Amino acid sequence: MRIARFSHGETVSFGAVGGEPDDLSVVPLDGHPFGQLTPAGMPVKLSEVRLLAPVLPSKVVAIGRNYADHAKEMGGDVPEVPVVFLKPSTSVVGPGEAIRYPEISNEVSYEAELAVVIGRLCRQVPVEKVPEVVLGYTCANDVTARDLQRAEAQWGRAKGFDTFCPLGPWVVTDVDPADLRVTCTVDGEVRQDGRTSQMVRSVAELVAHVSEAMTLLPGDVILTGTPAGVGPLRPGDSVTVEIEGIGSLTNEVVSRG
């Protein structure tokens, strides 16, 4: 199932997306997607609604250098334990929303990533139990002010600007995350092209590791790392993250004004 969050008129709802690729529609759901899913209205053409970030997480937990080739291009080895950092909830935006280029940075970069969406409150989750706490998966762009990342020991500012965590277009609940193609294109040019099978640590290992330290709430998001090929963005660019079996997420880059 594809679960979207969308606005239609003055109403914001969750909905189930279905139909043919060239004729998609969304059926509103009663309440939120973390319990029983109940249709609550007639289908609406997807072209008539505005897709929003599919969830509003209390926190976005991100993993650094989880692809060996990316670790190498960043000048380091794969870390012995996962590198965990947080992106604030205020960094989250949805499909079609602008990524705003900070005035204090001259080197903003894209990072295409598979995002895990947590489906229920959990902590200290064993690896074998992780599928029970995952609602599904979506596309993410871990936008980064690379010059600030190099200059500061902590990555909070470099990764945490408003608009630096696009998510979408929806959450897919029935996809196997083990071997999905992950690409990033900028103005139609492919910049990243990898597969989730190249991750050093699997989705289950990452969720278990994070949940050892903190309670995860429904709607929380875990970013699983990015393949090699990261590079710069400039105002005016259009950047698209696409993940096999999930969909594509496109955002424009604009000057912060």
UniProtKB/TrEMBL annotation:
Q: Does the keyword Transcription regulation apply?
A: no
Species, as recorded: Vallicoccus soli
Q: What does the organism's lineage look like at the top?
A: Bacteria, Bacillati, Actinomycetota, Actinomycetes, Motilibacterales
Where is each Fumarylacetoacetase-like C-terminal domain found?
Answer: 59-254
Protein name (database record): FAA hydrolase family protein
| InterPro entries hit by this protein | Fumarylacetoacetase-like_C, Fumarylacetoacetase_C_sf, Rv2993c-like_N
In the record, biological process GO terms are: carboxylic acid metabolic process
Key words of the record: Hydrolase, Metal-binding
Domain of life, per the record? Bacteria
